[in-house]
Each structure stands twice: as structure tokens, then as C-alpha cells.
Amino acid sequence: MSQPSDEIVFYTNPMSRGRIARWMLEEVGQPYRTVVLDYGTTMKGDDYLALNPMGKVPAITHRGVTVTECAAVCAYLADAFPQAGLAPALDDPKRGTYLRWMFFAAGPLEAAVTAKSLGLLAPTEKSGMAGYGSFDQVVDALETAVADGSWILGDRFSAADVYVGSQIAWGLQFKTLPEREAFKAYADRLQSREAAGRARALDDALLPPA
Predict the structure, then answer these.
(1) What are the extents of the domains in the chain?
(2) What predicted TM-score, i.e. pTM, was given to this entire model?
(3) DSSP assignment of 61-84
(4) Which of 48, 119, 126, 142 qualifies as a FRET site for 40, CA 20 to 30 Å off?
């Protein structure tokens, strides 16, 4: 059966970064169809590998296009559905700030957190070779984005908050980021959003029985 051109199909697993994309979909407010994939089986099956050769989730398909990588999914959905107001327009000066922090979280932040968790941080004398510099530099920079008690763009919530906020919330949960007050307060603000609550409930319902 062919996919209707405007249908959003969401490929995910409830124990994955797909939770970020789910939250973004709920913020956008457009109907979508969920396809749950299992690690090691359907996620590595020929049908899905044809969409995402990495064999990882999340991914979405929409209007004949496949989008993978959480930051890209968030940015794509925000631009595809501008009526949701989740991204500054191209001529809005805040567009630069929006893109800056979206890609900071997808690049230096995730790289630094992963490297630290694996004990593979660049030695101090070679930190200039790493895109993140040092772990402390990344954390200090991140704090400046959320320390003023509002959103990444000030008084306007955006897709950058979905992505950056998810990274911070998970960092606090799994203790891969320090428990700074600015991070905890920001995560609390995010958790109170209705779309975030809906997304959690939908994914939690898909979890296997304890």
C-alpha cells in the first residue's frame, strides 16, 4: 500500500531517541502514524534499512522524503508546519540563535557527553582537535542558553527547546550532565508542557511489561 503524500509516518521504539521526535510531533499537532520497530529485528530489516541505512530510530517519512536524526526531524517538522510557530522564519533575526543551539546540542553537546561516558574525552593538550573542546566548556556554554529562566529564544518556545531540552532532561536523569540549578529549572519548565505529557504517555504505553 502506498503512503499518502501528506501522511507523516513515524518510525520509533519507546526506549530510544524516538521520544524526542514523538514530543516534536505532538507539539506540531498534525496527525501521524506510528510504526514501532524492534532492536535487532525489524530495525535491521531490509524494509527499514532501505529508509535508514543506519538501522536506527527515529525516522519520519513525509511527502516522499525520509528524515533521520532527531535534530533534523525537529527542524524539518517545524519548517514543514509553520502554523505551529515552532521555528523563526528565514528573515527573523532569531533564526540564527535557533539554529545555533539546535546544532550545538546535536554536535558538541552530544559528542562531549558520549565521550565522557565512554572515558574517551580528548586530553587537555589535544582538546583543540575536538569539536567540543572540553566537557566543561560545553556545559558552561549550554548553561548560558537556558540560565535566564525562559526558553532558548527568550519568551518564545521553539523546536530548539524540544531538542536541547531533551538532551538536558536525559543528561540529568542519567547523570551525564551536572545538576546545575539552571538545568533543573529548565527541565521542569519543559516537563509541564501538555505536548510533552502526551508524548510521554504514548511512549510509556508502548513499553514492554515490567
Answers:
(1) 8-85+197-204, 94-192
(2) 0.95
(3) EETTEEEESHHHHHHHHHHH-GGG
(4) 119
